[in-house]
Design brief:
Bound molecules: adenosine-5'-diphosphate
Helix content: 25-40%
Largest sheet: 6 strands, antiparallel
Shape: elongated
Number of helices: 24
Structural class: alpha+beta
Length: 775
């Protein structure tokens, strides 16, 4: 609703009508010019509309200058140049936008527009002097980082709002210069850093466009040249590198231990390294090859002096390539030997332009060669004179070194290969097994093995040798075998001698064994023969005691008792001797039956009570087990225990006591005979179980014996599958401990005991075993 109608002059003009800062009417022409729908424009504020249209360059809403040229951007961001006229109609305001004639940029700058559309260069048009972007193609915007790579975010804005780092940069200075001078400017290589693409390089042309002597636009034409710049830089770097390398090369040549020089085709020196200057040429006076011969004498190996044309450098200039020519050089009276190399240098057309020459002083090398040669000779002499045959073969079996012994042992060796020599003989190991080719030390060494002291029997047509062979492979740097060193030592005699010695040794020990056997046999026979008359005497004495007891006077009885006692002693000795001989020959026979070991032990201890009592020694028996049936040879056990008991009683003074204890620990039965007697010295303990081992003390001497008892006891216990040990302290007493396995016999295993002694009755046995102790 208008209170006042609009002036008719507004008809057909682009305007907007404002009341209280809000748009209340938009003309169709305005909508057409800006490409925005009327609805979009309505009911927003005048400020919003100016912002939407990006009106520029600077708009002071309270002071809009009718004369000034402003620009706005259509919806499709096309720039339009306008004058803005403001009419105040009471409480309303009319903004009339008069588009300038010829306002279309594209029409104004048709060439630029063509480039713009082509999009192969970045094209942008800025308004000047305010530097606001009026137009830019995708190529140009594409150079920017996000979000400034699209029109919406750049068009109408000041360059500093989207070009990173613009303010205060050299780039800004260029803009100012263009503005000031009004002249085009070409930025040849502009470095631009963006987040997205990193550092890139650009060529940019600034073309200012003036109207009425004032610069109103600046056209920017931008081409990316990153690739070509990088390429050029790489090239520059390479050039620098080559220059650097050249310098290094010069330094290397300068410092080489060989003398190096270059002469041009006019025989002039172009380069001379330090070694050349120091030892061959005087740099100040030596300018050409001709100068050289003035103070250096060059001679060939025969001492003939060289002329200019014969010098290696001269010949190289004539196209010859010279390698290792040995010359004698003399300068200031000093002579030395050199090896010279010289090569021509050609240009691109194949013309010789220079020659490069290197000279090596060989004097030291020759000196070293001489020493090596001497050492080699020495080594060869040593090898030649060694007692072993030494042969060095290459990998194909061709002989390289053969010493005198090798030539002597194998006369045809020099004229044949390894296979040839080995083929002439048959080889066996010391057991007589024939060798296959694989077994040969040489075959193994050729595969890299080190063969040490292999003993081999070598059989020829009419010879037989035993050899000790060593073969050592020699490897090259690639660890490949290149040759082998073979040594043969003839040990035939040594082995024969050893064999002989062994034979002698064997014969000796056989004789010894035989002697022992005869002695044992003899002992056995003698003992046996002793026993028969002893039994007769013993029986006779018993008969006298039994039959004539009443007829005997006390004196006679005493004599008979002495006879009986000594018969028992003799019998004991003979029994023991016989048994020990049997034991030594491994002929102890064991007859085990199942018996209660507790009962058996108690009975044996009881049977000797009288002897102990008589000696004034207390004898006790204690067992931790009530009854224990084990497989045992009763007779052997009696002998063992009686022996230990008789010793205990013998070596225990009156008033002391003897204890016999029986216990079971796990699988074994332990029987301990402990006395408080004289004890056994520590150094004799190991001796008492030896045959004839007696501790030589007055007391033990007093108690007679042959020193067989314990050795027999030990053997018997071992035959029963047990063992014996002793602990003793001199003056305190001894403890003998027997260990016996507690195994019971299966019924079938039981054999009836066959007693071997004269009389198997315990009392009788006891009498015999105790015959040392007078009753
Ligand atoms: P012998 O037949 O002389 O008795 P043995 O072999 O039985 O020989 O004993 C060897 C020696 O061991 C004895 O001569 C004695 O010196 C010593 N000997 C054996 N048992 C005891 C013991 N219980 N106390 C002290 N010495 C002993």
């Amino acid at each position: 609703m208008y209170i006042e109608s609009l002036p008719s002059s507004l008809e057909n003009r682009p305007f907007i009508l404002i009341k209280d800062e809000s748009v209340i009417e938009v003309s169709r022409q305005f909508s057409q010019m800006t490409e925005f729908n009327i609805e979009v424009l309505m009911s927003s504020s005048i400020h919003d509309i100016f912002r939407l249209l990006r009106v520029g360059p600077h708009v002071d809403m309270n002071d809009i200058d009718e004369q000034k040229v402003y620009f706005l951007f259509t919806k499709s961001l096309q720039v339009r140049f306008i004058n803005i006229k403001v009419l105040q109609l009471f409480n309303r305001k009319v903004y009339i936008f008069c588009e300038k004639p010829n306002s279309n940029l594209d029409a104004k700058l048709p060439v630029v527009n063509a480039l713009y559309l082509d999009n192969s260069q970045g094209i942008a048009i800025y308004s000047m002097p305010d530097m606001r972007l009026l137009k830019a193609n995708d190529k140009y915007l594409g150079f920017n980082d996000k979000p400034f790579d699209v029109k919406e975010n750049c068009i109408g804005r000041h360059i500093s709002e989207f070009a990173e780092g613009f303010k205060g940069s050299n780039y800004e200075e260029i803009w100012k210069t263009v503005l000031k001078t009004g002249k085009p400017y070409i930025l040849e290589e502009f470095e631009y850093k963006t987040l997205r693409r990193g550092t890139t390089y650009w060529k940019q042309s600034f073309v200012p466009v003036s109207e009425d002597n004032e610069i109103i636009y600046c056209v920017l034409m931008t081409t990316e040249i990153t690739e070509s710049v990088l390429k050029r830089r790489r090239l520059e770097e390479q050039v620098n590198m080559i220059k650097h390398q050249n310098k290094e090369l010069e330094a290397v040549i300068e410092n080489m231990s060989d003398a190096v020089f270059i002469v041009d085709k006019d025989n002039r020196f172009v380069l001379m390294n330090q070694e050349a200057r120091n030892n061959y040429f005087d740099a100040d006076t030596t300018k050409t090859l001709n100068d050289v011969l003035a103070f250096i004498k060059l001679m060939d190996a025969d001492g003939k002096q060289l002329k200019l044309e014969e010098m290696p450098s001269y010949r190289a200039l004539k196209g010859e390539k010279i390698t290792n020519v040995r010359l004698n050089t003399e300068r200031f009276g000093k002579q030395w030997v050199t090896d010279t190399n010289a090569s021509p240098i050609y240009d691109d057309n194949g013309e010789i332009i220079m020659a490069v020459v290197s000279i090596r002083d060989m004097s030291k090398f020759i000196e070293k060669e001489k020493i090596i040669e001497q050492q080699k000779e020495l080594l060869e002499t040593i090898i030649e004179s060694m007692n072993d045959a030494i042969m060095v073969y290459d990998k194909d079996g061709i002989p390289a070194i053969l010493n005198a012994e090798a030539r002597r042992m194998y006369p045809q060796i020099a004229s044949t290969t390894l296979n040839g020599i080995e083929g002439e003989y048959e080889f066996f190991d010391l057991e007589g097994n024939p060798f296959t080719a694989e077994d040969f030390g040489t075959t193994r060494a050729l595969k890299g093995e080190n063969v040490r002291n292999a003993r081999v029997v070598m059989k020829g047509i009419d010879s037989l040798h035993i050899l000790e062979i060593n073969v050592t492979p020699i490897f090259n740097n690639d660890k490949v075998v290149t040759s082998i060193v073979v040594t043969h030592r003839d040990i035939t005699e040594k082995i024969m001698q050893q064999g002989h010695l062994l034979e002698v040794e064997r014969e000796k020990s056989e004789a010894m064994e035989k002697a022992i056997e005869i002695k044992d046999e003899f002992l056995s026979v003698i003992s046996h023969e002793f026993r028969t008359p002893l039994s007769v005497i013993s029986t006779a004495v018993q008969a006298i005691n039994l039959l004539c007891a009443n007829d005997l006077t006390d004196r006679l009885k005493r004599y008979i008792n002495i006879i009986r006692q000594n018969t028992f002693r003799q019998l004991r000795l003979v029994n023991n001797l016989l048994d020990i001989t049997r034991a030594d020959a491994g002929r102890i026979k064991i007859y085990k039956t199942n018996r209660d070991i507790v009962f058996l032990t108690r009975s044996i201890v009881d049977s000797v009570h009288t002897y102990a009592f008589q000696k004034g020694v207390r004898l006790t028996f204690a067992s931790r087990v009530g009854e224990k049936i084990i497989g045992i040879d009763e007779e052997k056990y009696e002998r063992i225990l009686l022996n230990l008991l008789s010793n205990a009683i013998k070596f225990t003074p009156a008033g002391n006591f003897i204890e016999v204890k029986l216990r079971q620990v796990k699988k074994d039965i332990y029987i301990e005979v402990k006395d408080k007697g004289i004890g056994i010295p520590e150094d004799k303990i190991d001796l008492i179980f030896e045959r004839f081992g007696q501790v030589d003390s007055s007391l033990s001497r007093q108690a007679e014996g042959a020193g067989i008892g314990l050795s027999l006891v030990k053997r018997l216990i071992e035959a029963l599958g047990g063992s014996i040990s002793v602990k003793s302290k001199i003056g305190k007493g001894s403890t003998f401990t027997i260990k016996l396995p507690k195994d019971k016999l299966q019924q079938a295993e039981e054999e009836s005991a066959v007693t071997d002694s004269l009389d198997n009755h315990l009392v009788q046995v006891t009498k015999v075993e105790f015959s040392d102790i007078y009753l």
